[in-house]
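Co-fold these.
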Amino acid sequence: MKITAVIMAGGRGERFWPQSRVNRPKQFLSLTADGETMIQKTVTRLSSLVDIEDVFIVTNKSYLDLVKEQLPSLPEENIIAEPAARNTAPCIGLAAGIIRKKYDDDAIMLVLPSDHLIKFNAMFVDILKQAIKVAEDNKNLVTIGITPTYPETGYGYINFSSSDTEYQGAYEVVRFVEKPDIDRAKQYVSSGEYLWNSGMFVWKASSILANIEKYLPDMYKGLAKISETYGTETFEETLCNIFPQLKSESIDFGVMERADDIYTIPGNFGWDDVGSWLALERINPTNEYGNMVKGDVISINTKNSTIIGGKKLIATIGLDDLIVVDTDDAILICSKDSSQDVKKVIENLKICNRNELV
Amino acid sequence: MKITAVIMAGGRGERFWPQSRVNRPKQFLSLTADGETMIQKTVTRLSSLVDIEDVFIVTNKSYLDLVKEQLPSLPEENIIAEPAARNTAPCIGLAAGIIRKKYDDDAIMLVLPSDHLIKFNAMFVDILKQAIKVAEDNKNLVTIGITPTYPETGYGYINFSSSDTEYQGAYEVVRFVEKPDIDRAKQYVSSGEYLWNSGMFVWKASSILANIEKYLPDMYKGLAKISETYGTETFEETLCNIFPQLKSESIDFGVMERADDIYTIPGNFGWDDVGSWLALERINPTNEYGNMVKGDVISINTKNSTIIGGKKLIATIGLDDLIVVDTDDAILICSKDSSQDVKKVIENLKICNRNELV
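Predicted complex below.
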């Protein structure tokens, strides 16, 4: 049975401004000391499980060159360039249609974000193998859940049933829930019946397409028209004509919250969604003062801060809990409490028509 | 009677790093919105009282070009270039010798730092006029004191006698005291008998030279040899040979703390010694959030901060009481509490032999 990977790399993640820009979002950045970008790490991580010929990158048309540049060993025809951003349901459906056409109904898809980090790769691969076993059987949809360690309000949760299933280590999903408030998040974490929704899925191409056909029939029809032409001269044109007309919909809301036969496998492999600059001190070594420092930095009485230099010296004195990021055309200085407000800077830049900085 | 000004511009003030550098210290920076540098302001401030031909700048040899560039209307021969830094006593003595030679014994010298700010120029000029009257008489030395507004521990103090003198508004100096600790500073301020020592003096060339001869006889001999040659071909050579051999001594310690016939005139003309980055918010307008902002800055939830941009955008989020200064090759980010520690950065740079940044 063919195992493929579908890596979703169309996101425009703004939370790493000023390093991330519309024309170089987070998945194309290197945020760790090893210099590999997030998408490169995502592909490398799968190398023992999936041949590079069977890895598909679904991305926005505008990132085509970045993908080619960062993944030179990937066959060019495996880059699926969306002519418009339509959220995850059309993205995954398009990849599923192409994979079913290229291989067969039973081809397994590992659907993965391109901008998360995983610390324990071997454990991650083991979980994927387990998920593949469940997904091979019948019409099952499998989602990788993350054992929650604290009541995060920024993630969706998966409510699972702890009753035994026919698949060891896999649990039936009761329901998907959107980002909760803090009280609910606390309840979820203490109940032992909820996992974080990591946005990683494993299924047969035919299984997810059957569900899209059932719950999103219009989208299915559009996707079918596109994938019919895959491998022919008219593919590009059909994609450009039809894809932008598809409804923008997430796979969670469009399919997972409605479908049956969903299993979750709890993973505990050091997952990090690298959701903001705060992540940098989690995913990189910090020094004895709790600082995560990169570049030419002189720190005096500075602690618990993340300081990322550019081409010039940064001197910090008497700082605590601060994020400093220098780039060629912009400097961010942000208290850790405010890391989510980076998007306000981008809003401001857009309003002022300063698109060269967005 | 000839009135001259001697502006001391040899300081290497490090507290405005990264804008100030060894090769461009504070007096040559513009720290106010009007774009004038500190030394330009100092000269402009005197224009109603002293002809530009009678203004002398004593500076370090290495700042000769900066002085010429910033004060193009100043006669070049009025720039006295010290071949070595020897503190204020030799600096003032050298200028006094030259002025006595060029004019006469009775020529008045207004001795002024080049890197202080004064808000109320007219009041300042009135105080100088009053001081000139006292200095014309006899062998008096006059120092301008500043009415203290809080117990500053960073300044020296002048203890004065509130008994009437023969000069209205001028008081006899009891003693000069060095920078006090906080308890003493409080005592001084509450006593009503102490003024801040601003380092501004008014006297005849002959008066200060007589005192130097009395209290610093070796220095006097050296200075006499130099000023003898003023206006001749050998001046430059004599200056370079003798000046570096003079003892490094402040005029306060060397003369003022020992001399008689010292009067002080209290001034209240909005004096600011601009001693650190903290001064910027005092000497410049702040916005409704208490921020002093210059350059291309987007501030979100930022208050009571001083942000000085360079060539790129600075975005600040959730900051309070911070100083941010961007220059072409270095960025400073410093809590207001730590503004005095800027010198530690410079020490660090020196130790690491990174002199291009000092």
